[in-house]
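quick one, two chains, predict together pls
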Amino acid sequence: MASTAFDTHLEGPHGAHGGHHHPSLQHQFDSLEQQKESSTLGMWMFLVTEIMFFGALFTAYVIYRSLFHGVFATASHHLDVTLGAINTAVLIGSSLTMALSIRAAQLNRRKTIVLFLLLTILLGGTFLGIKSVEYGHKFHDHLVPGPHFAPEDPAIQAVADKAQVFFSLYFIMTGIHALHMIIGIGLLTWLAIASWRGRFDSTYYTPLECTGLYWHFVDIVWIFLFPLLYLIGAHAR
Amino acid sequence: MNTSATAESIVASPETGFERPNYLNAEYGLRSWLLTRDHKRIAILYLISVSAFFALGGLFAMLIRLELLTPEGDLMQPDTYNRVFTMHGVIMVFFFLIPAIPAVLGNFLVPIMIGARDLAFPRLNLASWYIYTLGGLFVLWAMVNGGVDTGWTFYTPYSTSFSNTHVVATALGVFITGFSTIFTGLNFVVTIHRMRAPGMTWFRLPLFIWSHYATSLIILLGTPVIAITLLLVAAERVLHLGIFDPRLGGDPVLFQHLFWFYSHPAVYIMILPSMGVISELVAAFSRKRVFGYKVVAFASIAIAVLGFLVWGHHMFVTGQSIYAATVFSVISMLVAIPSAVKVFNWTATLYEGSVSLQTPMLYALGFIGLFTLGGLTGTMVATLGIDVHLHDTYFIVAHFHYVMVGGTIMGYLGGLHYWWPKMTGRLYPAFLSRLSALLVFVGFNLTFFPQFILGYLGMPRRYWSYPEEFQVFNVLSSAGASVLGVGFILPLCYFIWSMRYGKRSGDNPWGAVGLEWDTPSPPPTENFYTVPVVTHGPYEYNTQEVHARTSHPEARVG
């Protein structure tokens, strides 16, 4: 079915470059270039929806922070700035290795693509590991909102209700961010396997590019989350 | 826009029973449908599931109208009534009105109208149908296990702290279905940008495409917000996070802001595709170019943009700042301008046209009538002072049914009747279909016009009993709902009948122009035998001898 469709189109005005068509070219597209442009535009559109998705959370954050400014600064002291800073560096590093894997594809270096993808996965995994240590501390300190919220710090106890709003935002925002990281690592694993099998080279590396866009987006979300959640009380310390 | 020589060399003939290869007979078996990546087949899958949800939502509507036949609450308990109107709203809004036109007609027609073989991401398209089905299963599960009683708006803190019904399952169902809408919108934007046939410039695009483009932008910008909002509601119920909880200092009004930031533009997700359908129908059955093509195209974009700036008009009595309310009120009235532009331009298209009152045209004219009434009452309730009086009354119920339901259903049914021969290659009975258009129009007005009066007299929405003075109007409304029901069942019957027994339609039974009519009915899997080259605008009825291009000029419906 699909093949007859394609054969018919070989005779059409777009058949010029269809003589030996690329194995990765899908039937609805006329050329690899059109396919690549479509895929990247699609990824950008998806990122627009992601911006709106996180945007609602950032809106909630901005409103509550302006309402309960002091409480947010106090509660922010209970986040681990050192671990957060290390994670920021780890994530920026992973964006670099992601970009380098695309570069390797453009240069037709198959093993280098795989190497950089694995490094990206490793850094992403490191981020999640550190994040889970941080979450563990919060559970231990009873800073998780809900019926078991019982902070020892009297400064927090005094404003326990509103501090829960802060920690609710903290967990939901970093939690959804972490979920995006997990999905990203899944995609990277699939890419690493496909790259090892020689699926990508300088003529076709669109999945690498699109996953790269996604990975950088997740990185940028963290770049906003880190100062907004961890650093707001810094000057008041 | 030339059909290829190959198309004419293999012409279907009803006598021999020979059928040209098309998307329907390309493959057989359930598997070939469930794993298809053909946008036309996915449109048919959507047609079936959307119709099923419409029937289900209609069933709940019937229960509501039955209960309201008498002033006493005698058919069901108030708790049951709450669940019935909630399920009616959730199913109709999220599983019928929003996907109906884009996922069925849009899916089928967007690639064909721009001269592409398929949407840009066929697999994503199929995934969107499965995701829609999955979301639907969540809601069905909730329904079977007792339903939800929050109203389709899920207002906090009732939904987060007090309701003992299946809020989480329903919210997750809506959350999941949101992704199917996003995938469809994303596919349309990329397809319209990157897959147009040679010569298909932006201003040669049919207005159907323009309105689907505007719709897709709203989908992309709005749907993620409702997704995260409902996720927060679910998280608050399950994990006791405190984003909207007033006991912790959270603000339930924030929920309303986030909810309406999506749910108001969602009204335009429903109405804009319908407007696109109406533009096509009015042009085709007036034999004229759409008056002021560019203005109509940009009006769609203007509605999409303004639609994002008016959500506060749902919250005039929610303790919103008076200054914010004033601004929202003014911008809401501005939406009337592009909407009125469209209505006037359709009317101007009719002027001196060769108007033929075929079934699709009857639906289109019905749309213009219902939409005008809905739109005018819209400016009424956008007025701050009037809204304070009318808020949460049946006036609002009548208003949004006129716009959302009247608008979407007239466009959806009109479009289905217009493109049915294209989708199936068959004609349906002319008399019955005209009767259905008439029944829907009359039934709709009989159902909802009395509700304007009820609301103005002060009957609040969402109550299962009411004072006796209101009974006359409620009986009228319930009677109208029965007429409406017949009007919906008729097309269901003759459409199914026509698939097997309907007369063959020929490629272009209406003598219409547009790329979709330049390819066989039903179209082949790859849509066109050769890539079409576009040399002129979409509605060249004046300059071209249309009837000469029609394959079966005598095969006029009715």
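Residues 78-114 of chain B form the longest helix (37 residues).
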